[in-house]
Amino acid sequence: MDVPGAGGSRVTDRTPKYDIAIIGGRVIDPETGLDAIRNVGIEGDRISIVTEDAIEGDETIDAAGQVVCPGFIDMHHHNAGVPFGEKLALRDGVTTPLELEAGVYPVEGWYAALEGKCRTNYGASVGSIPIREHLFNPNYKTRFAGDFVYDMLAGGANTTMKWSTEKVSGDQLGQFEEDLEKGLKQGAVGIGHAVGYMVGGCTQAESLVCQKMAGRYGQAVFLHGRFSSQMPPASGILGFFEMMGPQEIYGGGLVLQHMTAQTLADTTTALDLVDNAREANIQVLAEIYPYNFGGSIVGADYLHPDNYQDNMGRDYGDIIETATMEPLTKERYEELNRTAPGTSIMFYNATEDTVVQALANPNTVLGSDAFPYTIRASGEAALDWDVPFEAVNGHPRGAGSHARLLRWVRDKTIDIPLSLAVSKMSFMIASFLEKNGVPQMANKGRIQEGKEADIAVFDPETVTDNATMKDGGLPSTGITHVLVNGTVVVRNSLNIDDVFPGKPVYGSGKVA
Ligand SMILES: [Zn+2]
């Protein structure tokens, strides 16, 4: 068959043939600045060629009118390695979801359980939350990413809440430090430290141990800061200083996860701080999810009225009970905290203007904070691949964050070039992780010859998120093809269920 190449050249007998040929798409490669019509040839798990010349493939993907870009990397994904979460992530263009905020423990067992079973790449940090739980409850081990949250949602069958409230000090702090190191040696991608869920339990000494260990191993800390507040004395920015102080002394990277949820009306100051830190060559990165509401449990420290009203400027009615979509009242809030503090809720935090302003900053990246879903009818965790998209409750960010930013670019909600939006979801993240102890990232986040073939193809005119607060599991549309390590996992906008090309992503501390 005679197929025109991207540059008008024609297929002949001597046209090179690849496993897969993605033909005629607008290729965006943020690192090189390439933004032009090209053909992409894939051989095995790698990109073999990016060319204007005609190529052929055993499988041909016609990408005319569509964008071909690096598959998205998400540092903040509580459904990493969970089949239902992977199914949604892939439809949103995410090829590498990583559980870096909450983390896992023990690390080795988590990776081993996923070997050969993932449609996406997968990786996790070693987390202070699961280490703490293990210290207080030696039987605990992370079964799957997000199981902490599932467990809280289910009333804490496998976990205690001691991890949130108890101090780790003396000999236990020494054990904590050993466990962190053990996790890094087993290949964890940095250290997850969600201080904001253990405001009264975590000491500054413990935070210091985390950042110091990250510095020693050239890794990053992934932080849910201690405070969500725009008011003194305990502001979101002060929560960042808790880690930035030790970082200045001991080094290591630092990712300020869902930054706007912490800094609220102080976001302009926080963005300046991060920009200036980066100019001073300090490895700090701010990450944002593109929603003006978060998802959590009703017992979360920062939702207590002392904080949520006084420091965040919100009220009971700004908290929505996920199961019923009803706003809370004072009475309902108090009742749930007494009887079921693990109840799933969504809560308004930073304004949409603040979120857009933060995402428009050229130094910030997107992280979805994809949150565990539950099956609406039974309340059980939505884990299996076969769970229908329509059957679940949960925050829409687990389904639509990436397509939402692409839609915002199109409808001018946010005034940034499409290539920058793509970079914030791929290359900028790969580049930060590569500098902070994840050497594999040198081969991700790029559409270049020799790089790993994690690729998303989307229609810039139609790509959109569909998930809402009420229907949080509806997949994004307009992302037509997705490849993980050279294997097609989304074809013509449909998930492929019987391929498992996902590979582990490890930190550089891994001992062979
Ligand atoms: Zn968080």
Strand content: 15-25%
Report the principal-axis shape: globular
CATH domain fold name of the largest domain = TIM Barrel
| Largest sheet properties | 9 strands, mixed
What's the architecture of the largest domain, going by CATH? Alpha-Beta Barrel
Q: Can you tell me the CATH class of the largest domain?
A: Alpha Beta
Oligomer: single chain
Q: Could you tell me the number of beta strands? A: 23
CATH superfamily of the largest domain: Metal-dependent hydrolases
Q: Would you tell me the structural class of the helices and strands?
A: alpha/beta
The first-to-last residue Cα distance is 49 Å
Total number of domains: 3
Bound molecules: zinc ion
Low-confidence stretches: none
| Average pLDDT metric | 94
* Overall helicity: 25-40%
Calculate Rg over CA atoms.
22 Å
Count, helices = 16
Description:
The protein is α/β, with parallel strands linked by helices and 512 residues long. It has three domains: 17-70 and 445-495, Urease, subunit C, domain 1 (Roll); 72-294 and 346-435, TIM Barrel (Alpha-Beta Barrel); 295-345, no CATH class. The chain has helices at residues 83-91, 107-114, 128-136, 147-153, 162-165, 171-185, 204-217, 236-250, 259-263, 267-279, 305-308, 330-339, 352-360, 397-410, 418-424, 427-435, and strands spanning 17-29, 34-43, 46-51, 56-62, 67-70, 72-74, 94-104, 123-127, 191-193, 220-223, 253-256, 284-288, 293-297, 319-321, 326-327, 344-348, 365-366, 374-375, 392-393, 455-458, 479-484, 487-491, 494-495. Strands 1, 2, 3, 4, 5, 20, 21, 22 and 23 form a nine-stranded mixed sheet that branches. The protein has an eight-stranded parallel sheet with strand order 6-7-8-9-10-11-12-17, with helices on both faces. The chain starts with 16 loop residues before the first strand and ends in a 17-residue tail after the last strand. Zinc ion binds at residues 101, 194, 224, 257-258.
